[in-house]
Design goal:
single chain; alpha+beta; six-stranded antiparallel beta sheet; five-stranded mixed beta sheet; 10 helices; 13 strands; 54% helix
């Protein structure tokens, strides 16, 4: 059992070490992923701001260049004509542009800064040119129930620019993903110039697992966790089996300690503990505890005449007879040799009547010898109750033992109440 316990302890330590290693590995990877994503996000925000500012510079350059060219040629024009010409050039530029990570440019023209339906017109869209000319509403919700146009408009009105997130269907796909967007106002035309990219394309540019290294790491961690769980399951099962075995062994040992192997009566060790408990209860509650000490008359003669196996049979017969007379809460204890102690709690009849009945029942028993001869045996009994002046068990035992001595000395008296 000790070797098994040490082995189980070693397995437990191994499980803890593996789990700690796995936890550390996951923590390191989580921190690296978090740091990488934070850096990517910060870089992406700067990149989007730079891209939008460059396109605003392009818009402004085209606008100013056309104005100068028209002036030099003394060509009359209106601001609306200039805006439409600039818009045409921007559509051509945006439609031809290529971006990484699925990013693109779009331009919305605000016609009502109070928001609501038809607050803006989509003038340019790099991915969905067929939507150019569509009217927009701040009441439009994204796939998560957010109001991205309203968020964008409020940010533009407050700061002239805004970075925000919303959920949108991916290009040429049914998948809805979270998107990060930067928007800035070009005031001369009330154009909101925007760019954005999906977060998943930014973190996993090739799709699926971000790298072979990360896949290998998670594979190793999964194996470690699997091994840990198997070891833990083995330890739990082994501990359960060991515990059940230990309980059975403990119960068996307890039975051996508390029971006399020959007669099945309580052992002397059990009797001492029981009597101490009863004396404490008597002093605390005043319950009626009766105790009797008996032995078999002429037991040595029975052993010498018929042999020890017949003597053992007489002891077994006596114990069986006593148990038939006792109640569920009463006990019989083999005190030593052919001497027994009986205990009774709150007897329904008098102690005298109980001892008389027991004595007569024993006298009726017959034990058959090996040659078929039937022998009778008798007992002598000393009995009493716990009394107020009993300070310890020995006080009651001496009084009852003295009563037993008187019963044995008077040949025709088989029990004495002390």
């Amino acid at each position: 059992m000790l070797k098994f316990s040490k082995r189980l302890h070693g397995i437990g330590v191994g499980v803890v070490i593996v789990l700690l290693m796995t936890t550390v590995f996951f923590a390191v990877q989580w921190f690296n992923d978090y740091k990488t994503k934070a850096n990517l996000l910060a870089f992406q925000k700067r990149e989007m701001q730079t891209t939008v500012e460059n396109y605003i510079n392009i818009i402004d350059y085209l606008r100013q260049d056309m104005k100068n060219t028209l002036k030099e040629g003394s060509i009359e024009y209106t601001e609306e004509q200039l805006k439409q010409a600039t818009l045409g050039l921007m559509r051509h530029i945006v439609h031809k542009a290529n971006f990484v990570n699925g990013a693109y440019i779009w331009i919305n023209e605000v016609v009502n800064y109070d928001g609501g339906d038809d607050y803006a017109i989509r003038q340019v869209h790099g991915n969905l040119p067929e939507t150019e000319g569509d009217l927009l509403s701040t009441n439009t919700q994204d796939a998560a129930g957010n109001l991205p146009y309203l968020i964008e408009l409020e940010g533009i009105k407050k700061d002239g620019e805004i970075t925000y997130n919303y959920f949108f269907q991916e290009y040429q796909s049914d998948k809805v993903s979270e998107k990060i967007t930067y928007a800035k106002l070009y005031e001369p035309y009330n154009w909101i110039v925007c760019t954005g990219t999906y977060l998943n394309s930014m973190y996993e540019p090739t799709g699926g697992v971000s790298s072979g290294r990360q896949f290998a790491f998670y594979l190793v961690c999964s194996i470690l966790i699997g091994v840990s769980l198997l070891l833990l399951a083995y330890m739990i099962i082994s501990n359960f089996v060991s515990s059940r075995k230990l309980i059975k062994e403990t119960e068996l040992l307890k039975t051996k300690i508390e029971r006399d192997s020959l007669s099945g009566a309580g052992s002397r060790a059990f009797g001492n503990s029981l009597l101490e408990e009863y004396l404490r209860s008597f002093k605390a509650t005043g319950n009626d505890y009766s105790i009797a000490i008996l032995d078999i008359d002429n037991f040595k003669t029975i052993n010498d005449t018929y042999g020890h196996n017949i003597g053992d049979s007489v002891i077994k017969s006596l114990v069986e007879t006593i148990r038939e007379q006792q109640g569920d809460n009463d006990h019989i204890i083999r005190w030593g040799g052919d001497e027994f102690i009986l205990t009774y709690i709150n007897l329904k009849r008098s102690l005298d009547s109980e001892m008389d009945k027991l004595n007569k029942s024993v006298a009726e028993q017959v034990v058959t010898t090996d040659n078929g001869e039937g022998i009778h045996y008798t007992i002598s009994i000393g009995a009493s109750r716990f009394m107020e002046h009993d300070k310890e068990i020995a006080d009651a035992i001496k009084r009852i033992d003295d009563a037993l001595y008187l019963a044995k000395r008077n040949k025709n008296t088989h029990y004495v109440i002390g």
